[in-house]
Amino acid sequence: MNRQLVPVRALLTDGSVVSVCELGPGDVMALLDLHKSLPVEDQYLRFFSTSPRQLEDFVQRMVSPDAPHHVVLGAFREDRLLGAVSYVVGEDPEVAEVALVVSHAEQSHGVGTLLLEHLVSLARGRGIRRFTAEVLMMNFKMLRVFTDMGLVWTVVPEDDVVHVELGLDPSDRYLDAVAEREAKADVASLSHVLRPESIAVVGASRSPGSVGHVVLRNLVEGDFTGDLYAVNPHAKSVAGVDCYGSVAELPETPELAVVCVPAAAVPGVAEECGRRGVRALVVISSGVDADELMKPVRAHGMRLVGPNCLGVSTSAPGVRMNATFSAHSTLAGHIGLVTQSGGVAIALQEELRRLGLGLSNLVSTGDKLDISSNDLLMWWKNDPETRIVALYLESFGNPRKFSRLAREVARHKPLIAIRAASSEAGQRAAASHTASTATPSVIRDSLFQQAGVIAVDSVPELVDAVMALSTQPVPGGRSVAVLSNAGGLGVLAADACVRHGLKIAELSDATSKELSRLAGPAASAHNPVDTTAVVGVEEFARCLDVLAADPAVDAVITVTVPTALGDPTAGVHALAGTPVLAVRTGQTERLDGGIPCYADPARAAAALALLVERGEWLDRSHEFTRQDRVDLDTARGIVTRNPEGWLPPDEVVRLLKAFGLPVLGGTLATTEEHAVAAHRAFSGPVAMKAVADELLHKSKSGGVVLGVDGDTAVAEAFRAFQDRFGDRLRGVFLQPMAAGGRELLVGVAADPKFGPLVVTGLGGVDTDLIDDRAAALAPLSTADADDLMRGYRAAGAVLAETDSAAVRDVLLRVAELAAELPEVTELDINPLVVTGGGCLVVDARVRIAAVRPTDHFLRQLRRTR
Question: Which residues have a Cβ under 8 Å from the Cβ of 506 and sit 6 or more positions away?
Fold first, then answer.
């Protein structure tokens, strides 16, 4: 076919899977047949000329290998072409004319919009900035397609034709429109997995100890609401379910097949399911050849969970499905759980079940060849039955899309993730200060923090957080009151709160007086409050109400122990608008009203701290705003002129100034005489920095001389650099001496999967002495920049004596540079001199490398590893 792009799978509006690829000469007849098959009344849906001969000539030009400026993409279902879209570049290399044709039977299924999205992504990656098209005035459907795209567009009517122009920049409006279309399609496809009307268990063994037998039995005992079949050529029935010899022999086509056969047989079973028309597979089997399994999955447009997984379950109204080999049935509830580890899934399911907390869905993704956490986030975003989302992820397939999805979901529902090992970070320059900080854990933690994902380190911590989030509101602040009938445990609770960044509230005199009246003169009415062991249930409950009424209190932790005089735990009750977390040593449980009760004060304080962090994240603005005084054309021109390697210092200055950064200028001198002349122009002491091949750490290598003044001193310094670096010397960069101030590092390190990472921390000589840095993924919202600015250990002392607004501005501009110019694979500003009056970039390095354009938000299904 001579196709230049690898086909990708994507979803249409109805959830069906199609393959999108670039067409070649071998596709000409399919394209002509598609166009000619349109009925007369659909002529208005075409941009092509109506003459068959003109069309044939046009198509031949478009798919010719000698026409690099002509591109045609097609959407296929199995081997049938459903639609095609194309662009042709004219005299202006940044402008292309677009054309589209869609099969009459496939219109209104999203084929045209999907193809246009892929064409936009491809064109943008090849430097095209605008699409133009001419549409017949009465072609309302095609005009609607353009309107729904979400791109900035203009229309100019002329007679019976409308001239359309589309800007291809991926604005938030466009990305939101793409995400909405993707979510709609993904939910439609996942309904075959999470809400199937019929299931076949393939490999349903008669042996009670086999996985296939347990999965079938769990479906039967769980009262699956749809039609259930078993496939076993050696049995007539298993667990009371009739068996059939093969998928082909089933009396009807099952919507979902759960595959529990030996690994070597899985691809053949998948092919049989695909031919029968099965819409989705859950492959429990482990050790399966991924490539062989994905061949029938792709060919027949099926969705896939697994292989090597625990299975899936659903407890939504009208659907009871436990297609797992868990020992116990899934308790119905409102927690959506996705995990790569079957063991983690079982541990969480059992502990949540013990506490009376159930799941809306459980999806064990296993080897995650297709359906992933991103798919489930789209499902749960608008699922009314899911109120909390819990995740265990060992890797990220598309972390940029995950971040955007998680941000959107977290605005409405808590997301909790167990930290687990991330994939290895991509290539980076080992000698760079900035790049050396970009470890996988740093990237993962930055992603979670920015996206509003509550991160924990263990199964018990996740369960503790879920207990609190299930019933308690987020507090309005960090001030906590501790109420206890055991003074020592109250002190431990107060200490735990402080360790987790919470504050012990200062109670008002009125509150303390009322507490003394209720608890008696022996009680301690100051926070932490000790009612003593003689307090009764009713008095303890009233003390709780008094604390909650104090304006200084944002949350309450109660700590109770039973004594021979009584147990005030029954007095712990829910409060309107104020979270209450209980502690009862030795047991984790839920009290009446769903109040979370922890076995230790430290666990309660940790859970409350997570509630506080969520509240603070919700209160922040997460909008990305464009910075003023940014000259993208100039910046892109610099990258074009310098396609590979470290930028010369003068180009670094131009690049940073193009993004409005406060840069200390300078002059690159290539001769001794030029250096002397540059010094005279500055009329004062200068810093001289050698520019030499393979010279990264100038100060360590003797490549920097400061405070040089006078013609003779400048000439001597220049000659010293010549002697030191010899033929490697490319010039000397001269700058006026900068005023003193606090020195920071700001940089960018590029990761091939996660994208650019912005790093900051102590700069100058402190960079090598103290490893104290913070990182965040670009682009940054203002709130992200504030977190980054305060994220390293010494930030408090630094910001107390400097201009934090100026530092924030630098971080936002560097993040925008990183997001707009993926070719900048490394940027190292060191030092950024910060004073009470502003910032100044004194020295910087920028490395450029050719990068393959990556559209993280393009609609496509996960590719096989």
Answer: 479, 527, 552
Say how many C-beta atoms besides its own lie within 10 A of residue 700's C-beta: 10
The predicted model scores a pTM of 0.88
Whether 756 and 822 have beta carbons less than 8 Å apart is answered as yes
Q: Which amino acid is at 428?
A: R
Q: What is the distance of C-alpha 669 from the center of its chain?
A: 45
pLDDT averaged per 10 residues in sequence order, the chain, 865 residues: 69 94 84 76 42 53 58 90 90 90 86 94 91 82 84 82 87 90 95 97 94 96 94 94 96 97 97 97 96 95 96 89 90 94 92 94 95 96 95 87 94 94 40 42 87 95 96 96 94 97 96 93 91 93 96 97 90 95 90 94 97 95 85 93 90 94 90 92 89 81 90 93 92 88 90 88 70 87 93 84 89 95 93 87 91 87 70
Q: Which residues of 272-311 are buried (b: 16+ CB within 10 A; e: fewer)?
A: bbbebebbbbbbbbbebeeeebbbbbbebbbbbbbbbbbb
Contact 18, 82 (CB under 8 A): yes
Q: Say which residue the tokens 């307090």 belong to.
A: 535
377 by DSSP, 3-state: which?
Answer: helix
Q: How far apart are CA 575 and CA 577, in angstroms?
A: 6
Check if the beta carbon of residue 104 is closer than 8 Å to that of residue 38.
yes
**4: which DSSP letter?**
S
- Measured distance CA(377)–CA(365) in Å, rounded: 13
- Is 347 within 8 Å of 392 (Cβ atoms)? no
Long-range contacts of 60-67 (CB under 8 A, 24+ apart): 60/25, 60/28, 62/23, 62/86, 62/88, 63/2, 63/23, 63/24, 63/25, 63/27, 63/28, 63/31, 64/25, 65/2, 65/24, 65/25
| Tokens encoding 840 | 């100044």
- Burial grade of 18 (CB within 10 A; 0-12, 13-18, 19 or more): buried
